[in-house]
Amino acid sequence: MSTLIDPTITESSDAQHTVLLPEDYVKKFDPDEYLQFYFSRDAIEDGTRVSLFALPVFAQLMLQTMRPSERETLLDIGAGPTVYSALCFRDVAKRVHLSDFVDRNLDVLRKWIRHEETIDWVPTIKVINRTEGGPTPTDQVCIDVEEKARGLVKSGGIHFADVHQMDVVPELAGKKVDILVSIFTLESACRNYEEYCKCVTNMMRHLRSGGRFVLGSVLEDDEYNSGRKTIFHLLNLSEQMILDALVSVGLDVANAKKYVLDGEGVMFIMATKL
Ligand SMILES: C[S@@+](CC[C@H](N)C(=O)[O-])C[C@H]1O[C@@H](n2cnc3c(N)ncnc32)[C@H](O)[C@@H]1O
């Protein structure tokens, strides 16, 4: 997972190479370490996460192909301590629901809502803005972008999620959103392909027919750094395995928009639920 791993760090930590498992998230996933590792100013300047290129492109496509009434609600499953989905889709949806399995991640998201210190999202906003084709944003533009995203999450909510449950987001049980986003979560949460397919089925219960599913996945890798010294297991997935799982839950994969970044070992796909 080259987008998520700084090779110099993995090499130096080989001596104590412990790989944590899906059941270790609650105790061992550290939101601050994760944000520092991937979203600090230095991390963003050193090499950007591919998500910040793919998601704004999908957002633009949604603006072009969906009427405002068809794209009111967005749910991000496994957002972790990050808010970049709300930043990328701020002009698309009216309400954004961020969800995750780890309470400490949800606490960080709530702190962000209350304007308390978390990470500085300005470097991320600048990359998103560049992908959107805008000029280098002023400080005021960055503040406005973040405030708009914050407002959408205030209108939506911050929720517990477990992809292994039939109602992945219990607080939204029985409710369906227009856009479902999940980035680098399923391959983190699942131990085998059978579980993966079950979790995709569970997630789809939150998406309405005609809605869009946006999935970001690591391809063919076994682990990733969740911080400088912490390594978590990943389910090793080929592109075909992912596509098969999506077809089996009724997503229109034949007409999907897909980016496979071989050098980066990641895939992003946007598909409509039939
Ligand atoms: C690699 S992080 C991705 C975070 C964020 N989506 C991003 O792109 O930076 C994996 C996330 O999956 C979450 N996760 C792990 N097990 C989960 C489960 N059973 N249900 C929902 N989320 C889970 C973790 O808490 C973590 O936030």
From TrEMBL:
Pfam families: NNMT_PNMT_TEMT
An annotated GO cellular component: cytosol
Keyword terms, alphabetized: Methyltransferase, S-adenosyl-L-methionine, Transferase
Gene3D superfamilies, per database record: Vaccinia Virus protein VP39
PROSITE patterns: SAM_MT_NNMT_PNMT_TEMT
GO process terms (BP): methylation
Stretches assigned to coiled coil: none
GO MF entries: N-methyltransferase activity
Keyword Nucleotide-binding part of the UniProt annotation: no
Positions of S-adenosyl-L-methionine binding: 34, 78-79, 84, 100, 105, 162-163
Transport keyword on record: no
SUPFAM superfamilies hit by this protein: S-adenosyl-L-methionine-dependent methyltransferases
Top-level division of the source organism's lineage: Eukaryota
InterPro entries in the cross-refs: NNMT_TEMT_trans, SAM-dep_methyltransferase, SAM-dependent_MTases_sf
PANTHER family recorded: NICOTINAMIDE N-METHYLTRANSFERASE, NNMT/PNMT/TEMT FAMILY MEMBER
Family: Belongs to the class I-like SAM-binding methyltransferase superfamily. NNMT/PNMT/TEMT family.
Identification of the protein by name: Nicotinamide N-methyltransferase
The organism of origin for this protein: Caenorhabditis elegans
